Amino acid sequence: MAVIHELSAVLADQIAAGEVIERPASVVKELVENAIDAGSHEIDILVEDAGLKSIQIIDDGCGIEGDELALAFRRHATSKIDDRKDLFRVHSLGFRGEALPSIASIADVKLTSSTGGEGQTIHITGGKLIDQKPAEARRGTDILVKDLFYNVPARLKYLKSMNTELSKIVDIVNRLAFGHPDIQISLSHNGRELVRTAGRGDLQQVIGSIYGMNKAAKMIPIEGKDADFAVSGFVSLPELTRASRSYVSILLNGRYIKNFQLTKAIIEGYGSKLMVGRYPLAVINLDMDPLLVDVNVHPTKQEVRISKEDQLGELITSAIREQLARQNLIPDGLTNL
Ligand code: ADP
Ligand code: MG
């Protein structure tokens, strides 16, 4: 048998990348989350060839100090949590310190950042530092990821068509935008703008710029609160439905999550108003004490464990049921006002 030895840092990063970075959309998700965590007001996402040629994210957040740039690319290096206590009270979208090293181990990455003063650019390819030097930059971060998976041929082969990969990018950008109506977010693909939100904090307007104003006008606000949870957002009137559940977005403390139980609770709010096999459009924001959520279940953090999930489900169901019942009291023709 071979002797036991520690894996090299780059190999360890590539193994972690296998979990966190499944496809180009995963890169977009991780980098936009970093920009959100940095307190950005404006985030621009520029993608070429469904992200396989390049993904660039430009933000106006807090930036990274020049002498911390290399550290940001080390595994388990993060500015977001400190100790065990923090792990149970995560307020940021990131905390595992895995995204940058993972991405840099399987792509060519140039990151330019400034905290206000002079900026620095760091260039890393396949986990190898090429160089770091001063650069012109305004406050914020500009990261350019090229040739994703160039050294992981198995991953490249597993990717779907360009259209499918692009639609997954658009999908994740939409959901991140729903969770952050106060941030101006744009996405363009090969020079064509696909998404642009105004960043004025108006969720219905964000829904309008993503699903179309005519659809947003057929969605009504919901609200609910109990001792542990606050629920808010917009759901479609029963006349506006889709054949799939993918128009239901659930955001927990600003994080897009996938949760079957809570999706079911939304649908239950409609009672018999939905035909079998039809689903509403919904954007539901959930606010709760981070202590009630374990986000450390899966590397991508899209599955989370919520304490008192049944209670939360009932709160969502009754908030939707009540609002739809109220809607029935308004004479026809006035519902869209
Ligand atoms: P995590 O987000 O889990 O902390 P990452 O590998 O994604 O780990 O990022 C490592 C660190 O780099 C972050 O904790 C943060 O301090 C810094 N960083 C990354 N992206 C940005 C950004 N866009 N703006 C400011 N700081 C950033
Ligand atoms: Mg991160």
UniProtKB/TrEMBL annotation:
Protein's name in the database: DNA mismatch repair protein MutL
UniProt KW DNA damage keyword: yes
Family: Belongs to the DNA mismatch repair MutL/HexB family.
Function: This protein is involved in the repair of mismatches in DNA. It is required for dam-dependent methyl-directed DNA mismatch repair. May act as a 'molecular matchmaker', a protein that promotes the formation of a stable complex between two or more DNA-binding proteins in an ATP-dependent manner without itself being part of a final effector complex.
Organism whose genome encodes this protein: Secundilactobacillus odoratitofui DSM 19909 = JCM 15043
Highest taxon above the source species: Bacteria
DNA damage keyword on record: yes
Transmembrane regions listed in the UniProt entry: none
